[in-house]
Amino acid sequence: MKQIWIITKRELASFFDSLLAYILLLAFLGFSGLFTWLIGGDIFLVKQASLQSFFGVAYWTLFFFIPALTMRMIAEERNSGTLELMLTKPVSDWQFVLGKFLSALLLIVISLVPTLPYYITVASIGPIDHGAVWTGYLGLLLMSAAYISIGLFASSITSNQIVAFLLALLIGIFFHLLFSTLAGSFTGFIGKLLSYLSLHTHYSSITRGMVDSKDVIYFLSIIFLGLFAAETAVAKRNINDN
Prior knowledge:
mainly alpha
């Protein structure tokens, strides 16, 4: 656990040593605030105490935000040669991948904290479903964790950051959009399977205030598979270099 935390702190510090983290944070807050309060949502106009518009905007904003965040995490180390140096230290491949994962997830948490005033402001407008708000944030964190694991996998199999970004988007778009779109074209088992594979199905369920075990298992499964694939790619690289 100590090694994981060391990697996490090192990676989190590297985010804030560059402009990337600040640009992405400002972009996320800017887009989410703009579309929540002025364009599309306009909470004051509809006079409804709800953060559903924010969760809808964040659903798409984080979809692009996270691949941009993860594209460099392993690819850059592979390109610069520091990946091999890192793996010669007393740290396992799993610890290396988990440290990267936790650092990105912490950055997402940091980016969501400044949106809490949205909650306070909306609650002052009228009665608000507090449970739906907190499960909405839980849904954002679970979705973010799933896409971070996919982004890490994409970053682990290439040394080109742009390729890692595009690959993460390509994989993510199946879960984000295509599965739900295809589900409407099929009936029976295939339709149900495609609907279950759709991230939107589970995210929408959670943001409405219903936390079902099948939704949690779905997200945890994607997270595990993504991290396992990333760890396998890193381990394979390590074996080949030896």
